[in-house]
Q: What sequence folds into this?
């Protein structure tokens, strides 16, 4: 069971949260972006055996959104991209 | 190949089963093949089988990091069906279901195919609309979907006692998909392995590929394994959830992410449910195995995952959803749980194509892709052998993303 740090309520159990998808870089301007980069932004996310950055929402709580890094092998919440479990 | 029959069973039985020939060999690994297939799961094995059977290519090595048939094919809940949503998808799955139905005869191996039908239990009007839409599209492509009343649904599934007028989501009706079936996953893997071996192909277990190798011209040149470098002008990647791990070693990026889908089984009970029951609004599905266990699945873990066990939260959600419709199952003991790494594409449809690395093929995004194994092998073998996509797979090329021509598929997951 993950304990997810809500910015408002503090650490709360995972079952109170909804997954909000991977964090993506800001939307580039398609008019000035190379086609491959534009398609990449639309369709690709990093898929590592390791930390990913993602959004979660404290849906069954206060409703706050937050961003965290989570290791896909263990589901442990880690400090950042280099901080593999 | 030593054929299996009642007579052979009697003959070897009299010899106390000591005289059976091994179903496949373990030949020495060579340095070069015409085609390397990475992954001895369902898709890799079916591909190797059809490369020989349909195209006469016999110089094939299937390389498997673990043991054959030990990946997701061993972890799936064996629901075979063609009730998908899109014009591009349905004909492919209709073909795959048909190939499964003839597999026992074709491969002389009892795959225990049991065409028992699947019933969708509908509890919201949004889902009702989704299923009606699917029905109209399935009608076009020869896959059967029929609406049934709640009374008929309860007649066919007597154990389904929840979802009454007082429930939070009363049952509105159901849809039945009669072609749906279950079979025996080990038998499918072993039947293909035995047929590949008999036709001259090789399967090498305990042979993980650590790196894809490109030649100076950029083409695929072979693969690196702890047992040495193996060369081939054509390499097909059929490794399910680890596709991107492997294709990144050739500098490729693909619109795939890996998730953990899980299942669990109960203790065996008397025959109770003779159809596959799918409850998309509640969020679970189940069927009863020949041993009597209820095989139960729900939603995947939220977010990307390379874990292979069920999370407590997912387990609790699935169990409480199941008890809302099958309250009597409260007394059931659960025996085992597990998960598997599955990759899913941006639009939830499969990707099967030659990549930007000439000679390197991928078959991926097989979320719920057990049902797709025979047709997926048929189409990939066609592409590898002829260089042209099989008509059933043509809509699922990688180029669709380049053209932003997604095949958004909501029929992919059973539960939701
Ligand atoms: C819980 C669960 C329930 C499911 N239920 C259903 C269902 O009811 N119906 C349905 O249609 N589908 C279902 N599926 C999906 C189905 O299991 C997969 O889509 C399908 O098995 C994937 O294709 P495969 O058989 O080729 O994969 P796998 O069996 O995973 O084969 C891939 C093989 O590649 C090997 N491999 C990986 N990396 C390497 C490497 N570097 N070198 C060499 N070998 C490598 C692996 O060891 C593995 O044996 C379910 C999956 C799960 C996890
Ligand atoms: Zn909160």
A:
């Amino acid at each position: 069971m993950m304990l997810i740090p809500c910015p408002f309520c503090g650490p709360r159990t995972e079952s109170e949260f909804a997954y909000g998808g991977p964090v993506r870089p800001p939307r580039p301007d398609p008019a000035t972006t190379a086609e491959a980069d534009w398609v990449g932004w639309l369709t690709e996310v990093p898929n590592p055996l390791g930390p990913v950055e993602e959004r979660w929402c404290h849906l069954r709580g206060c409703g706050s959104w937050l961003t965290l890094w989570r290791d896909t092998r263990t589901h442990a919440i880690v400090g950042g991209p280099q901080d593999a479990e | 190949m030593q054929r299996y029959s009642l007579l052979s069973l009697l003959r070897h039985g009299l010899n106390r089963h000591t005289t059976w020939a091994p179903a496949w060999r373990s030949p020495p690994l060579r340095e070069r093949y015409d085609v390397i297939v990475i992954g001895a799961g369902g898709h890799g094995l079916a591909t190797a089988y059809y490369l020989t059977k349909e195209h006469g290519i016999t110089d094939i090595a299937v390389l498997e990091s673990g043991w054959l048939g030990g990946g997701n094919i061993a972890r799936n809940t064996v629901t075979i069906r063609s009730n998908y949503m899109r014009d591009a998808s349905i004909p492919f799955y209709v073909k795959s279901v048909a190939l499964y139905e003839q597999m026992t005869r074709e491969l002389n191996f009892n795959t225990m195919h049991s065409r028992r039908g699947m019933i969708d239990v509908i509890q919201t009007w949004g889902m009702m609309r989704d299923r009606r839409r699917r029905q109209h599209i399935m009608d076009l492509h020869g896959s059967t979907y029929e609406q049934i009343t709640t009374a008929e649904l309860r007649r066919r599934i007597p154990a389904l006692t929840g979802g009454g007028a007082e429930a939070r989501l009363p049952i509105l009706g159901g849809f039945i998909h009669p072609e749906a079936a279950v079979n025996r996953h080990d038998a499918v893997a072993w039947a293909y392995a035995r047929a590949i071996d008999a036709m001259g192909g090789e399967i090498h277990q305990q042979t993980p590929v650590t790196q894809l190798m490109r030649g100076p011209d950029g083409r695929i040149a072979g693969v690196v394994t702890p047992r040495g470098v193996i060369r081939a002008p054509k390499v097909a990647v059929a490794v399910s959830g680890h596709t991107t791990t492997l294709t990144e070693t050739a500098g490729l990026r693909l619109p795939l992410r890996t998730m953990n889908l899980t299942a669990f089984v109960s203790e065996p009970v008397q025959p109770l449910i003779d159809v596959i029951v799918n409850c998309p609004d509640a969020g679970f599905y189940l069927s009863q195995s020949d041993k009597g266990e209820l095989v139960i699945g729900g939603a995947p873990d939220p977010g990307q995952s390379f874990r292979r066990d069920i999370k407590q939260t997912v387990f609790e959600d699935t169990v409480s959803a199941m008890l809302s419709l099958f309250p009597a199952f409260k007394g059931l003991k659960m025996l085992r749980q597990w998960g598997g790494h599955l990759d899913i594409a941006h639009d939830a449809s499969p990707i099967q194509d030659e990549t930007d690395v000439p000679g390197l093929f991928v078959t991926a995004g097989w979320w719920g892709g057990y049902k797709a194994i025979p047709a997926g092998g048929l189409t990939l073998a066609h592409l590898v052998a002829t260089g042209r996509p099989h008509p059933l797979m043509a809509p699922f090329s990688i180029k669709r993303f380049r053209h932003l021509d997604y095949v958004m598929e909501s029929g992919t997951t059973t539960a939701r």
